[in-house]
Design brief:
Chain lengths: 171, 265
């Protein structure tokens, strides 16, 4: 019975992993605005790490990184370390900040995404300082802002400030 | 006082961090074969919905592409069918026309209408035959049903035809049955009528009206129309005869010019 309960607890994590895997090949196509994409995997890791213990956040980052890198095994390990580090850092530092308000949470996840995007950019997209700065301004920063907005919407839905009924009431 | 954040105060977590770092670095520097093994299972399980989604999207995209292609083909085929219908209809008309014999010493010169003029009912048309085609002023223009009009003006490569509905186009006519004579005229108020036929004349509704050949422009025997109504107004000496023209002036398609054989081609 306990095994079944433990397995049931794994369902939400599996769903997150499926979402990461689903968006990985389609990140350029789905929800991309003028080439600006949502950082789905780090966003999910951060959102999970905000509510889970350090241990869970760390290992979820590892598994999420494994799933993410499985699409392109030539860089296998990079995202394991990046996302594990991101989950760990988020989980550790969340206690140092006041994350009661949605604004603070959005700023927090944006900083987390920014820290993720810099090594990501260095590894995958750039070969020089000029390219790095260009990539940072055209890929990372807009992506962080876009992902931050999505994270903000998630928090608003979580807190009930943004719901289907409210959207319906607007019209 | 411990400087570490609360999350790192547990020794176990330090162990996990070290373990993750070791595993991560080991995988990173392990090479492609290990990476291949590690990616096998996640790619088969977690990427399956994405693959199914891709397949579904490809099917939809292909279907949309095929749909667009078929629509374009449909439009093309419909247009071709319409043109084919038009050609079939033209063929039918030409077959009917084969039975039409031009008067002796005349040949038929087909002409296409390029412009139609006139308010209410057409009274003038421009055709694609001109002086270079041996077209001359006052030549008769016919359709398969009867006389349509005469050539009013000729230019080098086109001509203007005065239809019977043009007031300038009057025809010396006679009734085919009784040989009574009159003049075919047209005005907007009365329509087409046979003028100058004395009240003593023999006229019946339905009588065929043909060109008498006396005016000089139209050869004798060409059909102009039929008598639609005939009455003698009080204290008048002439019939008031309405004519139903043989030609439908609102449905003109092909015209033929009667060219006298022997006129230079």
């Amino acid at each position: 019975m306990r095994i079944v309960q433990n397995l049931l607890q794994l369902i939400p994590y599996s769903v997150y992993l499926f979402v990461i895997a689903f968006f990985r090949p389609h990140e350029h196509q789905l929800f991309s605005i003028a080439g600006v994409e949502i950082f789905v995997a780090p966003l999910i890791v951060i959102l999970l790490a905000l509510n889970k213990p350090v241990f869970v956040s760390l290992w979820f980052g590892v598994i999420a990184g494994l799933v993410f890198d499985s699409y392109d095994p030539s860089h296998m390990g990079v995202h394991i370390l990046l996302l594990a580090g991101l989950g760990l850092a988020t989980s550790i530092f969340r206690a140092q900040f006041n994350l009661e308000s949605i604004k603070n949470r959005v700023i927090f996840i944006s900083i987390g995404l920014l820290f993720y995007s810099i090594p990501y950019l260095l590894i995958y997209k750039t070969s020089g300082i000029t390219e790095f700065l260009t990539g940072f301004l055209t890929v990372s920063l807009p992506g962080v802002i876009y992902s931050g907005i999505i994270g903000g919407l998630f928090f608003m839905m979580q807190s009930g400030r943004f719901s289907y009924q409210k959207i319906r009431a607007m019209f | 006082m411990d400087w570490r954040p609360s999350g790192l105060r547990d020794r176990k977590i330090i162990f996990h961090i070290v373990a993750v770092a070791v595993i991560g670095l080991a995988i990173l520097f392990s090479g492609q074969s290990v990476a291949g093994y590690l990616s096998f299972l996640p790619s088969k399980i977690f990427y399956l919905p994405g693959e199914l989604f891709d397949r579904g999207m490809k099917i939809l995209t292909d279907a949309a592409h095929n749909n667009a292609q078929l629509n374009a083909e449909l439009v093309s085929l419909t247009t071709r069918l319409q043109l084919s219908d038009d050609a079939r209809e033209e063929n039918r008309r030409l077959r009917v026309l084969l039975g039409f014999e031009p008067p002796v010493n005349y040949r038929l010169l087909p002409a296409e209408i390029s412009f139609i003029f006139g308010s209410g009912i057409p009274n003038t048309v421009r055709i694609n035959r001109g002086e270079v085609d041996s077209v001359r002023v006052n030549q008769t223009v016919v359709t398969r049903n009867g006389v349509a009009g005469r050539i009013g003006q000729v230019f080098s490569d086109y001509s203007i035809v005065y239809l019977l509905t043009e007031p300038r186009c009057r025809v010396a006519a006679r009734l085919k049955r009784s040989r009574e004579m009159g003049i075919i005229r047209y005005n907007l108020k009365r329509g087409m009528y046979l003028d100058n036929l004395p009240s003593q004349g023999d006229v019946l509704v339905g009588d065929t009206v043909i060109a008498s050949g006396l005016g000089g422009y139209f050869s004798e025997g060409l059909i102009l129309g039929t008598v639609a109504s005939a009455e003698i107004p009080e204290k008048e000496f002439f019939y008031n005869i309405k004519i139903a023209p043989a030609v439908n002036f609102n449905g003109l398609d092909e015209l033929y010019i009667l060219v006298r054989t022997g006129e230079s081609d």
